[in-house]
Write a structure and sequence with these properties.
alpha/beta, 10 strands, binds 6-O-phosphono-alpha-D-glucopyranose, aminotransferase
Length: about 375
């Protein structure tokens, strides 16, 4: 109803703007980095584990892909991420010391539940759920779990569910790192400080909405778009493309920018906007040379970057700068920009944003 929506036009917009609150709530009880955040008994499970297997669908799968970068780099534990509907029917090689992490906003996605049960049957009893619904089937069958506090998500396309999953997964990476002597007290304090600053930093990205609306109006007339990112920001590009597909019905694909030359470059023309996620990290120079290839072929570039990313706007290059450089947590901030771009493109196209055609909020059948 209008009362619930307040100043917003759709639940999706409301939920996008709720994210600083959702992240703050998710962190509210996190007084330190400790395994117990994931339940009694997590201490043993997190120490025993030699590897991590993440199972999920949709946006939750992209949260898992992001977590792979975090866990491998912070904790030096090998991580595999699998789409639940693939994993459950695959002859994979089970390792009993695997921590199996199921990620699901709803906790009711049939494929994710079945994949987790399959993993257990394969002899992997260390299971952990990351979920937004305390009463869900997933939480009921996983004594070890972390509950995100996004609050009820109504828009079919996940927004606050996704970013709070990222927060939970970052905490998991930190706990695993700590258990392996890779997080001393000082590093722990710094990480907590960075996490607690997130809501404010997220607010600064949401304030870019007017600039993003201007881009969205240009996007609305297109039928195809390409999203590029590298490293930790490749999953952000995937999520950006998924959001655009889901709610604006524009065909969008994401590529790790280094793969451009192995295919998608053939599609680049002025009719296909190219969105790049370009934080000022160690891959920026590589990414810039990828972007140069797009520009040289007449592609229109829309670059989300950091204040100091040294990307110069030109005829075919537009840039929106995020105000803060956020290191490892940067994907959370860039995701907000992706959500706003998809949302406003869909608004300009007049689609049914909160209930896109053919899609369901949670897919409880196979
Ligand atoms: C549906 C929703 C997506 C969501 C996916 C996984 O496809 O439309 O937004 O990411 O299910 O849902 P889950 O509840 O398991 O995270």
């Amino acid at each position: 109803s209008a009362v619930e929506l307040g100043p917003y036009r759709h639940y999706m917009q409301k939920e996008i703007f709720e994210q600083p609150r959702a992240v703050a709530d998710t962190l509210a009880d996190v007084l330190g980095i400790m395994p117990e955040l994931f339940g009694d008994g997590a201490y043993q499970a997190l120490r025993q584990t030699g590897r991590v297997l993440i199972l999920a669908c949709g946006s939750s799968y992209y949260a898992g892909l992001t977590a792979k970068y975090w866990i491998e780099s912070l904790a030096r534990v090998p991580v595999e991420v699998e789409i639940a509907s693939e994993y459950r029917y695959r002859d994979s090689i089970p390792h009993p010391d695997t921590l199996v992490v199921a990620i699901s906003q709803s906790g009711e996605t049939a494929d994710t539940l079945a994949a987790l049960r399959f993993a257990r049957e394969q002899g992997m009893p260390l299971n952990l759920a990351i979920c937004n619904v305390a009463t869900s089937a997933l939480v009921r069958e996983c004594p070890l779990h972390f509950l995100t506090r996004a609050g009820m998500e109504i828009g079919v396309a996940s927004t606050k569910g996704f970013t709070t999953q990222l927060v939970a997964l970052y905490l998991l990476a930190l706990c695993l790192a700590q258990g392996r002597g890779r997080l001393d007290d000082q590093a722990e304090l710094q990480q907590l400080k960075a996490l607690r600053h997130l809501p404010k930093a997220m607010g600064a990205v949401l304030a870019l909405e007017p600039q993003i609306i201007a881009w969205a109006e240009r996007f609305a007339g297109k039928e195809h778009a390409l999203f590029l990112g590298r490293g930790l920001h490749y999953p952000v590009a995937l999520e950006g493309a998924l959001k655009l597909k889901e709610i604006s019905y524009i065909h969008a694909e994401a590529y790790p920018a280094g793969e451009l030359k192995h295919g998608p470059l053939a599609l680049v023309s002025e009719d296909m906007p190219v969105v790049a996620v370009a934080p000022n990290d160690k891959l920026l120079e590589k990414l810039k040379s990828n972007l140069h290839e797009v520009g040289a072929r007449g592609g229109q570039l829309y670059v989300f970057c950091d204040r100091d990313s040294a990307i110069e706007p030109a005829d075919n290059i537009s840039a929106i700068r995020l105000t803060e450089h956020y290191g490892a947590l940067s994907p959370i901030l860039y995701t907000l920009a992706m959500q706003l771009l998809a949302y406003h493109t869909a608004v300009a196209r007049g689609t049914d944003i909160d209930k896109p055609r053919n899609l369901a909020k949670s897919v409880t059948v196979e």
